[in-house]
Amino acid sequence: MGYGLVLLATLAWSFVGVLVKTAAPMLDSFAISFGRFFFGVLFLGIYMLARGRGLRLHLALKWIWIGGAAKAANYLFENAAITLGYSYSNILIPPVQTTAILLFSAWLLRERVSGRGWTAAALCMLGVALIGWNGMPLEELGSGGLTMLLLVLGGTGAGLHVISQRRLVGELDSGSMNLSAFAVSALLLAPLPPLQPGWGFVGDMSLAAWAAVLALGLITGLSFVWFAEGLKRVPLAAAALLGNVQALFTMLWSVLFFDEPMTIYVGLGSAVFIAGILWLQLPLLRRPSKPASAGA
């Protein structure tokens, strides 16, 4: 059961690019981002009520607002990049996020970053650079500059959101923390669709697009629950390894659903940044873990 939950979360995250690309003909990036948080809060709230937990928004905490704003930026820039580029564009979010976490840890939390951490960050950014280059002649590199900038901004937002969670972990449980942060994200993004022509609707209504937005909300609200519950039942090292295959699934779906081109540079860059993330997690992978416990 534990491995299934971790794999379910990983698979859910890998489908984000396909779902955003499916919703994009009907909605712009602002509306998609708002929908992800609005329905995410709805699904998470229903889950918490079903588990007998009360709903309370902790909006007086500074780091809830910082985390909510950071996550809103993460989704907004990520969705814009996917809309402009390929559905697998968001494979660059995790390596940028990893690097951002290390930088924010040193700057905001005054934590010492080890040589292993900086090496991992260098490998992550090398992988990002390889994918961004994608074998293009130097004079053509600027053509994908906007997409790369959006992904870097999105990954930076994701990293700052993780830092906010670290600051709040002693005060709130993960459910209340995410419910509050996602509510702030939805609140910050809510004014944006009405400012766009057609309230963010850019094309004809589509059942597939609406289903994609609902699925994105479900992933936003519940994927962290699946992963957290899975972590209670499997060795941490196994969960880390399973989580890092997200990029491979993302690329597979992009080929299967949209027949998007996949070059050796994308594959090599992905291998390099996955190596960087695993290098950072190596002490965790070597640490002895208790066997998976039984239970639903």
UniProtKB/TrEMBL annotation:
Q: Write out the annotated subcellular location.
A: Endomembrane system
UniProt cross-references to InterPro entries, sorted A to Z? EamA_dom, EmrE-like
Q: Which GO terms describe its cellular component?
A: membrane
- Give the protein family: Belongs to the EamA transporter family.
Keywords noted in UniProt: Membrane, Transmembrane, Transmembrane helix
Question: What is the official name of this protein in its record?
Answer: DMT family transporter
Instruction: Report the domain of life of the source organism.
Output: Bacteria
Q: Tell me the ranges covered by the EamA domain, including all copies.
A: 2-132, 147-280
Q: Which stretches are transmembrane?
A: 30-50, 57-77, 89-109, 118-136, 142-163, 175-195, 207-227, 234-256, 262-280
Q: Which SUPFAM superfamilies match?
A: Multidrug resistance efflux transporter EmrE
| A Pfam family | EamA
Q: How does it sit in the membrane?
A: Multi-pass membrane protein
